[in-house]
Amino acid sequence: MKPVVRQSVWRDGASRPDDLAEETPVAFEYNGISHAVMLASPADLEDLAVGFSLSEGIVARRQDIFDIVCGESDAGITLRIEIASEDFARLKEHRRSLAGRTGCGLCGAESLGQVMRDLAPLPPSAPFPLPALYAGMRRLPALQVMQQATGATHAACRVDREGMVSYVREDVGRHNALDKTLGALARGGVSLEDGALVITSRASFEMVQKVAALGVGTLAAVSAPTARAVRLAESLNVCLIGFLRQEACVIYTRSNAMAELGP
Fold it and tell me: I need a labelling partner for 237 at 20 to 30 A (CA). Which of 7, 22, 48, 215 fits?
C-alpha cells in the first residue's frame, strides 16, 4: 500500500490530478494477541512498531523486540510483533484497548489511572543550543516529502547540536510520526539523550510522556503545548519548547538554562 495516492479532482474549473495522503487501519499484535488499532500512514511501519512499543512501555529495551512481520489485507495492515516473555506477561496484566481515531493518543484507555505513567524525572543535562533548533527548523520543510505532496501529514525528526536534521518520519497522525522517529532512532542505535526532537504539531502531554520515557530531554513543537504537557515536562525535567520558528520560539520549561544560550 502506497502512502500517497493520486486522484482526479475538480479545481480551477477543470479536472486535475491531486496527491492525497493515505491512511489505513494498523493493528498491533503482540505474541499473537491483539492489542491496539490505529489509523496511520502506511510507511515506515517497522519504525512505528518499535517506537510505539518503547514509548508506551510495552517493552523496556529495543532488544526485547525479537521480530516484526507486516501483513496486509483488504481491511488494513497487521503488525505482528514478537516480544520477550517478561514484557508480554506484563502487557497481559495491564492491557488496554487503544482503538481510535487518527492521531489520538489516549482513545480507549480503560481508566484514569492508565493516563499517567510512573516515570522518573530525567537527570540534569546541558541545555540544548537554540541556534541548532532554529537551523533544524529551517532545514526540516524541505525534507517533508509527503507534506509537500499532500499537505496532510505531520513530521517528527531529530536535530543534533550542530543543527543537522535526521530520522525524519511523517504520518497523518502526529503521535505516529513521533513514534516512527523514536523507533527509527532506536533501530539505528542512536543516542536518544544527545539530541532534540522536533514535531510539526502541538505538544500534548502524552507526547512529552513518550519522549521522557525514552530519555529525550528536549522536545520542540511548531505549535503550542497544552497546560498539562507543560506541567508534565516540568515534573520530568524535559525542556519543552513551542512555537518554534526559524528564529523564534517560546520556552515553557527549563527556560532559565535555555535563555542563557541566547538566540
Answer: 48
Instruction: Of 154, 132, 135, give the one whose Cα is nearest residue 200.
Output: 154
Would you place residue 170 in the very low, low, confident or very high pLDDT band (cuts 50, 70, 90)?
very high
| Domain interval for residue 135 | 130-259
Mode of pairing for the β-strands spanning 165-171 and 218-221: unpaired
SS3 71: strand
pTM: 0.91
Mean pLDDT (the chain) is: 90
Q: Is 104 a catalytic residue?
A: yes
Assigned domain for 68 exists = yes
Checking if the pLDDT of 202 tops 70, the result is: yes
Mean pLDDT confidence for 152-166: 97
Query: Exactly one of 70, 104, 157, 249 is catalytic; which is it?
Result: 104
CA separation (Å) from 64 to 15, 54, 80? Answer: 51, 10, 14
Classify residue 1: in a domain, yes or no: no
Q: Which of 114, 149, 181 is the last residue of a domain?
A: 114
